[in-house]
Amino acid sequence: MPVPQLTYEDKLDYTPTARSVSLARRRAARLVAEWGQGAVAGDAGVIVSELATNALLHGSLRGRLFRVRLVMNPVLLRIEVSDPRGERVPRKRPGVISTSGYGLVLVDGLADRWGTEPRTVGKTVWAEVELRERAATRPCAPGRSGG
């Protein structure tokens, strides 16, 4: 008899404040570790923090919440942050030098892929981390513990 594939999911709405970004980051890192993927829990927290910061700075509207959703199965962690501003879509901008805007550069470096999806109201910015490949092939970088 095959072993069932476990899928974990969590979603929570946050008020668009700086405090919510740190709460979302800590919650994501804690949940991913509790779900058995401690090696990528810190990366998940950073990804959530950067996407939530973008939602706060570029996607918030007065009186509207943003949502953080995590979905994890044995091979993939998907992180989604949804906000009410569908007309403000982030784009990859190679070669652009700025004193801010490095959040998506971090997301691009930590995630295997990221993108956006329109919603009826607003948009979702998502990032995916492949778990099996990371555990097997990702070298231990400076400042990281584990593999």
Describe the structure.
- With 147 residues, this protein is an alpha+beta fold.
- 36% of the residues lie in helices and 24% in strands.
- The chain has helices spanning 18-34, 38-58, 103-110, 131-137; strands at residues 8-14, 66-72, 76-83, 113-118, 123-130.
- The chain starts with 7 loop residues before the first strand and ends in a 10-residue tail after the last helix.
- The model is unreliable at 137-147 (pLDDT under 50).
Fraction in beta strands: 15-25%
Number of strands: 5
The poorly predicted ranges are 137-147
Shape: globular
The SSE string, one letter per element, is EHHEEHEEH
| N-C termini distance | 31 Å
Largest sheet: 5 strands, antiparallel
What is the helical fraction, as a range of percent? 25-40%
Q: Number of DSSP helices? A: 4
Strands of the widest sheet, in order across it, are: 1-2-3-5-4
- For the residues shown, what is the average pLDDT? 84
Structural class: alpha+beta
Rg, nearest Å: 15 Å
Q: What secondary-structure arrangement, pairings included, does this model have?
A:
Layout (H helix, E strand, L loop, with lengths): L7 E7 L3 H17 L3 H21 L7 E7 L3 E8 L19 H8 L2 E6 L4 E8 H7 L10
Antiparallel strand pairs: 1-2, 2-3, 3-5, 4-5
Helix pairs in contact: 1-2, 2-3
Notable characteristics:
single chain, 147 residues, alpha+beta, five-stranded antiparallel beta sheet, 4 helices, 36% helix, disordered C terminus
Could you give a quick summary of the protein structure above?
This protein is of the alpha+beta class. It contains four helices and five strands, in the order βααββαββα. 30% of the residues are buried.
